[in-house]
Design goal:
Length: about 475
């Protein structure tokens, strides 16, 4: 019963175009191998079912829709991250990895009562200029009720072609009646990197998602931080709620802080091209032609004391970065155990405008650890607040998902089972707590990271289980 309750009260993370994957795009046309032992009997059975549906279903079904759903079901049955991408889904996936999409420019989450809550309107976006505010609850999109609607479906309704309009009906605490905002969609350029000096000598660098521009944007931000304070004493790399993204982005971020030629991650799968090692060299992280964005970084960043912040929402590419920095003892990992998505999805184009997103490999840290269904265990378990980990303690991990890929070499870690009273307490606390503003003065985990960098004691989680220490990790020789 505890698991059922826990799953029902999971709150969606703030998203704009979340990827949640470590992806590689197939650069060449892919021709699957011909298998002479095709299951003819089963294929005939599929054709028979198709014929029965077409001839006897209560109403006509379009061929294209029926076949697309059949393909989607076949791929989705493999694991939680494999999927058939129809033209619309394929386009949205490309937009997300490019850091561009057409919409209104808001970060959203699912509220506890099932509405879509505005986490923040993006600066200079159509929603920002229309007057949408943080904390507004979207109750209708173009007149359609949204309570209980999956967050991905709500995102699809708000996106569209540039110049088209969408009407959002919102409930606002200080407004007696619902408010209607008709907003013109336009291309939104999403910035995945933020940075600032949080104290004299101490910098904060946040990566929200790994996209094509991430490495270039990170390099520019690090340059700016160094110009602001050349006598840096420490850096906090914030990967909390970073759902992943492009593998190249993760390699580039880790490469900024590790020696050149250091192994960042390796992958292993069925095909020869899925068994690879990736190193801190430009050919492994550069997606665009031109100068290496990391080449001109000040050498100080290779040795600057670091802390990496993670939580249950840190997945995939962010776990690659945290795992590599942990294995090389380059940074202390602080926060909550990560999601545990240690598989690579490769995008195989099918025809002109569709694709299959297929799990093709597991990835391994430099020390050979599989993160799949386990995650990164922090060196310093620290809750989101002094009082506890809030809804972070109720979120699902990879090991909770049906049909998840096994770890392959070690134990798996599902979400901790709390008793019902404890779950109710956590949920009640979260409902009354203002959403955490990462990088602010109220950011408890950031404050503990700064204490560690200064050599001071850190307030560890009262629920902390014995964790693996840095001394037990070490990169394997190649």
């Amino acid at each position: 019963m505890g698991s059922t309750f826990k799953n029902s009260c999971l709150v969606g993370l703030g998203v704009v175009a979340g990827v949640g994957l470590t992806m590689q795009f197939s650069a060449l046309a892919f021709k699957p191998p011909v298998d002479a032992s095709m299951p003819i009997a089963e294929l005939r059975q599929l054709a028979d079912v198709y014929g029965v549906i077409k001839s006897t279903y209560v109403e006509p079904v379009e061929d294209k829709a029926l076949l697309s759903e059949a393909i989607a079901g076949m791929v989705a049955s493999l694991d939680p991250h494999s999927a058939y991408l129809d033209p619309r889904a394929y386009r949205e996936l490309r937009e997300g990895t490019e850091g561009r999409f057409v919409g209104v420019g808001i970060e959203i989450a699912v509220s506890e009562d099932g509405y879509i809550e505005i986490v923040t309107p993006m600066e200079d976006s159509p929603a920002y200029h229309a007057g949408i505010k943080e904390g507004d609850l979207i109750t209708r999109i173009d007149g359609h009720p949204v309570q209980g609607t999956p967050i991905d479906d709500a995102i699809k309704r708000m996106r569209g072609e540039p110049g088209t309009r969408v009407t959002l009906t919102v409930a606002r605490k200080d407004a007696p009646e619902p408010l209607d905002f008709t907003i013109e969609r336009r291309e939104i350029v999403q910035k995945s990197v933020k940075a600032k000096m949080v104290e004299p000598g101490y910098a904060w660098l946040r990566i929200a998602q790994f996209q094509e521009p991430t490495v270039d944007d990170m390099a520019a931000r690090l340059q700016a931080l160094y110009r602001e304070d050349p006598d840096l004493k420490g850096l906090v790399l914030d990967l909390r709620n970073d759902p992943g993204g492009l593998l190249q982005g993760a390699i580039g971020v880790a490469a900024a802080f590790l020696p050149k030629n250091a192994e960042i991650v390796s992958t292993n799968g069925q095909l020869a091209d899925s068994r690879q090692r990736f190193y801190a060299r430009p050919e492994f992280y550069m997606l665009r032609s031109g100068a290496d964005p990391l080449a001109t970084l000040p050498p100080a960043f290779k040795n600057l004391p670091m802390v990496v912040l993670v939580n249950t929402g840190s997945a995939s590419a962010s776990e690659i970065v945290a795992g590599a920095l942990q294995d090389y003892k380059r940074a202390a990992i602080l926060g909550s155990q990560t999601f545990g998505k240690g598989s690579v999805q490769t995008i195989r184009p099918i025809g002109r405008d569709a694709a299959v997103k297929l799990t093709t490999a597991r990835y391994y840290t430099p020390a050979g650890r599989s993160i799949q269904a386990r995650g990164i265990v922090p060196d310093f378990p620290v809750d989101e607040t002094l009082e506890g980990d809030g809804l972070n303690a109720l979120r699902m991990r990879e090991a909770d998902l049906q049909h998840h890929l096994s770890n392959g070499s070690g134990p798996e870690v599902a979400t901790r089972e709390d008793d019902i009273e404890e779950q109710m307490r956590l949920l009640a606390e979260a409902r009354t707590r203002k959403p955490l503003d990462y990088g602010s003065a109220d950011d408890f985990q950031l404050a503990q990271a700064l204490r560690h960098l200064k050599g001071q004691d850190v307030v560890l989680s009262r629920r902390a289980e014995p964790s693996t220490t840095l001394a037990q990790h070490g990169p394997k020789s190649d």
